[in-house]
């Protein structure tokens, strides 16, 4: 990490830290005062989105159902990373061995789409920043299906997430979705209790 001077905040992002077993210990050893922002979304939708991204890079992939369940519609296969990542309560348990809950901000991926300025406002508050990013900085990109940042002064175009974001999801049967909702429900409820936030996924 680059050195941070007084009055500066250094940020880094990666989706893999939250689910990597060794990450909390290593980050705590580097800087025990680190503030942690975790963006979460409905784990069923997240798993389907993960599959869509992998499918775009690996066209011959087995069906979502074949990967999500062992032996047809048998037990949910938590060895598959697309499923395992959504077990947020288990990952948070690991992090809470090193960092107090007060060091975390949990951002709703759904609200980041429906109310980006509100969620970004929470991030600014958590980091002790003035609320400078507001509604006027966002517009809804119909093609992508989510908000993008307005064009910054001196820039030729608005800032939107890359091509890999906003792609259509493959069709997954309601029976598969319901099985996964049932599977995740106890983990989601534990996560709500741990964070003190109800994300409304049930």
Automatic annotation (TrEMBL):
Pfam families, per database record: Sulfotransfer_1
Gene3D superfamilies: P-loop containing nucleotide triphosphate hydrolases (3.40.50.300)
Keyword Transferase: yes
Keywords, comma-separated and alphabetical: Disulfide bond, Glycoprotein, Golgi apparatus, Transferase
Residue span(s) of domain Sulfotransferase: 29-191
One MF term in the entry's GO annotations: [heparan sulfate]-glucosamine 3-sulfotransferase activity
Cross-referenced InterPro entries: NST/OST, P-loop_NTPase, Sulfotransferase_dom
Disulphide connectivity of cysteines: 148-160
EC class of the enzyme, as a word: transferase
Residue ranges crossing the lipid bilayer per the database entry: none
Subcellular location: Golgi apparatus
Binding site for 3'-phosphoadenylyl sulfate: 41, 49, 165-169
Taxonomy, superkingdom: Eukaryota
EC number(s) stated in the UniProt entry for this protein: 2.8.2.-
GO cellular component annotations of the record: Golgi apparatus
Family: Belongs to the sulfotransferase 1 family.
UniProt protein name: Sulfotransferase
Organism: Aotus nancymaae (Ma's night monkey)
Organismal lineage: Eukaryota, Metazoa, Chordata, Craniata, Vertebrata
